[in-house]
Amino acid sequence: MRKGQYFFTSESVSEGHPDKVCDRVSDAIVDTFLKADPYARVAVETMVTTNRIVLAGEVRGPKSLTHAVIEDVARNTVRSIGYDDESFHWKEAEVAVYVHSQSEDIAVGVDAKGNKDEGAGDQGIMFGYACRETDALMPAPIHFAHRILRSLAEARHAGSAPGLRPDSKSQVTLEYQDGRPIRATSIVVSTQHAPDLEQDEVREIVRPYVERALPEGWMCKEEDFYVNPTGRFVTGGPHGDAGVTGRKIIVDTYGGAAPHGGGAFSGKDPTKVDRSAAYAARYLAKNVVASGLANRCTIQLAYAIGVSKPLSVYINTHGAGIADEEGLSEVLRDLVDLSPRGIREHLNLNRPIYERSATYGHFGREPEADGGFSWERLDLVDELRAAFP
Fold first, then answer.
1. Whole-angstrom Cα distance, residue 249 to residue 245?
2. What is the pLDDT of residues 48-64, one digit of tens each?
């Protein structure tokens, strides 16, 4: 644990940010395929700009999921976010669908056949992380950055903040003392708004949501509270800036407080270890911390395309773990089969649960009754404690 005083900053972006529009559309398409066939294969990217949505990628699934169906999914997703203006309208935007069948070469490597188990959909490294900074066992800066924007979005959808528009970003800087966050030193919120609102009005709309998102007494000084610091944010969304799937991977994970392997999550079915193994690594790290075996835990998993077992399982408890890391690695491998198939079955990932994860973080969320955010469960805690009494 780092001693003394230091500062750390993380950012989040809302569902209406152009890149997040793309993530959500791509994951809505994943959900559509998995609802029709739990074993469908999907790798779909989205790009948005002024009144235009472009979809491209590879799929394997029911023939009933035509280009027309995919286009409808994209339009309805944009509608649910709240884009209905001239520059980007869910109904009027031009949608181009360039989605085709998955490569047979990839399918051969991934599919189980004979004595061969299902292989990883690609090579890569994935990280999971957990710490004691928040009840969600997430780093505090990204946790509160998400909370601010999610509360603003909920208010916008409920009609209690009618002057706000879908596109927004937040940034939270926290002061740490001896490894523990103690207060916010600066807060930045940039939110798209109606043209008749002045900067001071937007500031006062935003303020109570920021204050409620933070622990009591953590609000920064007034001069360090920045709302739309350029003064005006009317032109936003895909009209203001083009968006692409997978460009907000640090927002999706730990806000820079832990490593990221490089692969994006959205638009990919769970045979892609970019997604499923990152979920598994978070699941294991969270259970290690929740069991009291460490205050912080980083886990790295590595895979090769077409190979079922991970090439390596690396665990770092940052010098503050009760269990030795080699022994912990062995116990975790015994508790969870870390092959792509094993992860999917253990966390029950072959279901339409991904669109909801595309905004406000894939981690630090509550497990849901239908299996959403299953990687946030704490069902290994008793077994881990028993293994290291």
1. 10
2. 999 999 999 999 999 99
Say whether 247 is catalytic.
Answer: yes
Active site (annotated) includes residue 221: no
Tokens of 40: 């469908």
Active-site residue flag, 146: no
Active-site position among 89, 157, 203, 247: 247
pLDDT tens for 224-274 read 999 999 999 999 999 999 999 999 999 999 999 999 987 899 999 999 999
Among the options 11, 20, 23, 130, which is catalytic?
20
Other beta carbons less than 10 A from residue 200's beta carbon: 10
Residue 277 bears catalytic tag = no
Separation between Cα atoms, residue 180 and residue 320, nearest integer Å? 14
Spatial distance between the Cα atoms of 101 and 61, rounded to a whole number of angstroms:
9
233 is annotated as an active-site residue: yes
Q: Look at the block and give the residue holding tokens 């293994």.
A: 387
Dihedral of the CA atoms 63, 78, 21, 169 (nearest 10)? -160
